[in-house]
Amino acid sequence: MIASDPAGLVGRLREFDRLIALLDDAVARRGGGAVSITGEPGIGKSALVGAVTGHARASGWAVLEGRGHDLESLLAFGPLAAALGGHLHRMPRARRLAYTEGLRSLGTVVEGLGTDGPPDAVTPTDRSRVFQAVALLLGRIAADAPVLLVVDDLHWADPATVDVLRYLSGDLDALGVVLLVALRPATPRPDVRGLVSVLARSPRHEAVTLRRLDGAAVAALAADLLGGPVARPLVAMLERRSAGTPLVVQALVQDLRARGALRQRPDGWAGTEPDPDTPAHLLELFGAGLDRLPPDRRQVLELVALGGEPVPHARLAALAGDDGLTTRVDDLRAAGLLVEERVHGRVRYAPAHPLVADAALARLGQAARAALHARYVAVLEAEGAAPPDVLARHHLGARDVVGTGRARAALADAGIAALRRAAPDTALRWLTAAVDMAEGDPAVLGPLLFDLGIARQQCGDAAGALAALRDAATQLNRAGDPRGAATAATVTARLSWLRDDIAGARRSSALTLELAATADPATRAATAQAHALQLVCLGDDPAVALAVLDGTDVAAVPDAGARARLAGFERYVRMVAGHGPADGALAALRPVAPRCPDQRLELACSNARLELTVLLGRWTELDAELAAAQELGERGVGPLRSWRSPLAEFHRRFATGDWPGADDLLTELADSPWGAHRPVELHALRTWMALHRGDVPGPDGIVGPPGPDGAPLEPRGPERDLHRTLRVLAGASSGPGGGYLVMFEWWRLLACVRASAGRRALLATATDLDRLGGPGSAPAALAARARALGSAERGEAARHAALAAAAFDALGMPVDAATARIEAAERGGGRDGLAADLVLLDRLGARPLAARARDLLGRPAGAPRGPVLTPREREVAELVTDGLSNAAIAERLVVSVRTVTSHLDHVYTKLGIGSRTELAREIRSTQ
To answer: Could you report the per-residue pLDDT of 595-611, keeping only the tens digit for each?
Structure first.
């Protein structure tokens, strides 16, 4: 049990050490002291008390334990009788009589002591003899061994026990007694508050307030209970449902295990239920006393619980009535059911624990709950500024009261808002409910099905997404919306291609032209361009795609802004088809023209500009493009943060030598909805970094991204091309596939240079790169590197490599520049700059390149190392060794606490350790 094993006190070891230090000090002084442990129900007070008493017993202390009970609060001296009687009755009779000799008043507290004569009568006004007898008894016991007197759940102790403890509090040091009490905060009883106040003024007092566990501690506790690591989704569920309360974590884990709702995956234990029911005994524990609340108090609690978030005072007054609200709230706070917080000067209320809310709502009937939801809808709509999720939750609960039409509209708005902020799981919930409420009107059902398809796709349900998108195209066509129908078919075609369904992609892409035939000129042009781009992705002859573009009449588009952007996007598609330079396409995508009224076209152009800016290595221009993408998100065009934005930022950080920053971004993305639903891209980014660090020994080390069960997925579609490209970069002899996405074109081009077997092929690749990028671009720099690799004459090769290094330096790409300088030196060129390059490569952990530079400089290799930590992982590990908490490390590195926790998880896995103590020992051994 955790209570008997200090090592199991997850998140409480610091408090345990403080209390043991107080006990050790009391023994050294032959004195006493006081301890008060405060915390809400289930927070671990009893576990900490048990660990301390277990240590004390093992150290030779006389431990006297008692506990208050809710149903025994009127039984005089209850906890004290348990503490004294339990200790006395365990010893031989002769010894017990020696301790209690002359203390007849103890018989009032402890039955069956066998003291000489009947116990003295004790009146309510004169109990001093009982108090003195207890003090004398404790003093006698303390003469033989240090005494630890424990009263757990002091808030339920009877008044007589509290009075005795207050009497003892002034003489604890003289008696040689340490008094330890544990209680809930904000108890309404003045006698208990008075005792705690007196103890706090004791010269030897330790006050411990137990807080809720953070996410890392919840994960550690769950791992301790299950005997192994726990997967992130299960940790997230436990953290959300328990709010960091250890007792709830234990109960949820035990319930899941008892019901067989747990399974082991390569990444740890995982649950089979995303949101399991709360065990009944937890509802009873946190709902104790709710049935005894007056109706007006109970309704306030129900309204706050139903809110799902802290409820401002003004909103609660509108919901429950302002008459006497402050008194009702104060009563609920005093009962430990409600908490008050002040944010920016505004008072808000929340249930004291999520399970208090669950217990309160479990007692509500469906009709009563719907009526309260309807009351929320009226108040929130009157306010006019409620978050979409909040309004949708109450509309869903009140749909039978407010009407399905109003509820459906609110749910649709919330779903679209969730998609914009990259929360597809939330969007899926709202949009599914909205579709269920649709009544067959194609004009209503079509847009809902389209958004539902996008949500399903972002959640990884490709089959469900395709079904919804096909239905959306059908419904939108019936509704007389050719633009919407063509858009749905375009997305269907792209998703089919991503699933390796080439025939399905062709059918859907061809259907787009048919659906858009009766649309306006701008829609016809945009659809034709999307179809041409899809043909290139499908691997068709580029001439076919170019013929589609040639048949498009962009000049017929009446709006100047739309016409200019369509012309720019056409240049982009032609460039992807191999006709035209990337810099020309990028310039065309930045027209000096009025803003386009077609927001989807604006978003498509923004995404294309992001991709081309990365491809060309124009890192100084990237901030403007990222800001433009963010502005489109804030205007309601697509997601607030397109997935291309973090990809572009990753490429910049990596290319400009900020590998720790790139590592941080990957860690943040892995914990985001983006990472959860785009495993291919995330896996590719991690593999890309691993290749540069030498963590992948060769092409056989490139495996597919892991699936839900941890086993590698079989690459298919464009993923297969990316997988092949990564293998080529790791040394495979086969050539790379076609472009995966333009965002990854840089990798494909590098693979072309790496894989080309002959000089002729390398020189042809260089020509293609020059045509693609133009002077001063990253492709042009790579072209110089290709010519260096393809030159037969060493001097010519060294000259081209030096030109490549200079070009990469000008672009601010230090690792690529170092690579070119190393290749120049290996071909007989000078070694200028290699020493600085070696320092950079060692700092970044680019071991293969560093080894080549070290050989050229004639420097010895470093000592063999164990598992390699990334620079950021090493930095986090060293800060842990310095004694910093996760929060302090996050503040130092300007990252989130979750990011620090993820880095530590990777460190623990790589080093095969499981604690901060082991980590500190390991890091010190390598310093």
So the answer is: 888 888 998 999 999 99
